[in-house]
Amino acid sequence: MYKKILCVLIAFVFSVSTVSAGTVYFNGIPVGSGVDYIERDGYVYLPLRKLADLFGGELGWDDKSKTVTIYNPMSSKKEILAEVTVGSKTATIYPIGGGDPYETEMEAPPIIVDSRTFLPYDFILESIGFSGELDKKTGDIRLKGSM
Predict the structure, then answer these.
(1) What CATH number should be reported for the domain holding residue 74?
(2) pLDDT given for residue 20 in this prediction
(3) What's the total number of domains in the chain?
(4) Number of H helices, E strands in the chain
(5) Sheet harboring 16-18: ordered strands across?
(6) pTM of the predicted model as reported, rounded to 2 decimal places
């Protein structure tokens, strides 16, 4: 019995690994540090709140549906950029400046670890139109793009 419990705990520890926190660079300029990422099931996840804070973004949270609303940090009004639901690969994107919202599939669903919501790294890059590099040795994230 104890061996089964120990095996389950070991499997959990190895399925979610947090890497030491690195620095986020935007167009070569450091914009924040202490952004850790998680690898799970072959996907890299970044902490949504930390990234939103770095770029002046605002988030909404619906606890009942586990849905995160991401607001445009460049808008003077509360303009929604995207909505994602923990456990679902479907995200709703709201085009900047108007237009009909549309759904897109993420390669992996958002997850919650230690009461923090993490989104797939590739989805974050695609949804904001940035390119990026992740240095797995240092934990540094280098983003390129325009805001």
Answers:
(1) 3.30.457.10
(2) 52
(3) 1
(4) 3, 14
(5) 16-18, 38-40, 43-47, 116-120, 111-113
(6) 0.76
